[in-house]
Specification:
- This protein folds into 2 domains: 154 residues, no CATH class; 195 residues.
- It is built from 10 helices and 2 strands.
- It has a two-stranded antiparallel sheet with strand order 1-2.
- The two termini are 22 Å apart.
- This is DUF998 domain-containing protein.
- It comes from Microbacterium invictum.
- Keywords: Membrane, Transmembrane, Transmembrane helix.
Length: 364
């Protein structure tokens, strides 16, 4: 490289860094402002709670933690909605402005709902841990009610705003996996039937209780998020086809459509529990599994241009699904174990797929 080229490269890098700095700084600044405003609202809310309600325990059904969780969910909804809408104008996300109103609305609702649920569950978990450390403590002072509520709401707004403003396909897949795992685990530990696992996984959603609402709601919101994930995925794949890395021009539309169907089927599993309609529930679960297997089997044809090792990994995932099916049919696996394994394989494959998609066309 000549001296002139080196200087030009340095200027280009500096210009790129300068161009990237304002949006990042703007997001951080707005997140701080959102946190400060929410903190003030939290302090006022804490004072009102302290004045209106009797002394409350840290955790439980009627507790300060449950009130804080609801408030955190409201703040997360506002911060998430504003932050996700505003991020459309950020570098790298301008393509979202071309989405139809319906598609953008579905994407916004799914992203916001996921952050609302995560904010509420995180708040409940924190106050549960605090209650185990401060056994018998009740919030009976306005000062501590105001401080705790301000901290909870401030952090909820700050973290939510940053998260929705920087969503990429990679982060979307991580968010999807985290949400489904956390929501399912919460349902498992709060279910009214401690022996649910002796029946099947879907048994968690058959009770008229908060735990079943959590389980079914996790599947429904997770399904919506999969459809949003499909939109981001199609955009990334379209860039690869334009560069000639993926040789099949129809691959973005094909894969994204299959993911949309998978998301709709996942939502259907939650919308129709087995105690309402076993047939529809099983059809939705089977449809989701068929889309997954279809993407694995048709991958070498649809995704021609992906790294060779990706297809090796896909065959491994397919072999694991078939092997698990054999173990289930031979009754080595219970139905619950089989469902857990298949779900783990699906979300594990999604993570592997996205990582290889991100490095497609690069040289070692």
């Amino acid at each position: 490289m000549t001296e002139g080229e080196a200087v030009a490269s340095t200027r280009h890098d500096a210009a790129s860094q300068t161009a990237q700095t304002p949006p990042r700084l703007s997001v951080e600044s707005l997140a701080i402002y959102a946190a400060l405003a929410s903190g003030v609202i939290g302090a006022i809310t804490g004072i009102i709670v302290g004045l209106v309600l009797p002394p409350l325990p840290l955790s439980g059904t009627s507790s300060f933690g449950s009130v804080a969780a609801v408030a955190a969910g409201v703040v997360a909804a506002v911060a998430g909605g504003v932050g996700y809408w505003r991020a459309r104008g950020m570098p790298g996300q301008e393509w979202r402005q071309s989405l139809s109103t319906v598609r953008f609305t579905v994407n916004t609702v799914s992203v916001v709902l996921v952050h609302v649920v995560l904010a509420m569950l995180s708040t409940i978990a924190v106050f549960l841990i605090l209650s185990l450390g401060f056994i018998g403590l009740e919030i009976n002072l306005l000062f501590w009610a105001a401080v705790l509520m301000a901290v909870v709401l401030g952090l909820s707004a700050y973290l939510t705003f940053l998260s929705v403003s920087r969503i990429t396909t990679q982060r979307m897949s991580s968010l999807l996996m985290s949400f489904v795992v956390i929501g399912t685990l919460t349902s498992m530990v709060t279910t009214t039937d401690p022996l649910w696992w002796e029946t099947h996984f879907s048994h968690l959603g058959t009770f008229w209780s908060l735990s079943s609402l959590m389980f079914n709601g996790t599947l429904v919101i997770g399904g919506l998020l999969v459809t949003t994930f499909a939109v981001y995925l199609a955009n990334d794949m379209r860039a690869l086809t334009d560069r000639g890395i993926l040789t099949r021009e129809s691959s973005p539309q094909t894969i994204s459509t299959m993911f949309v169907i998978m998301g709709a089927m996942l939502a259907g599993v939650g919308l129709v529990p087995v105690n309402i309609s076993l047939l529809i529930h099983n059809l939705c679960a089977s449809g989701m599994a068929l889309m997954y297997i279809g993407m694995l089997v048709a991958g070498p044809r649809i995704l021609r241009g992906m790294p060779r090792v990706y297809f090796v990994a896909s065959w491994v995932f397919l072999g694991a699904v078939l092997g698990s099916t054999v173990l289930f049919v031979t009754r080595f696996f219970t139905l619950t174990a089989f469902e857990i394994v298949v779900f783990a394989l699906i979300f594990g494959w999604i993570s592997v797929f996205i990582r290889f998609l991100g490095v497609a066309g690069q040289r070692d």
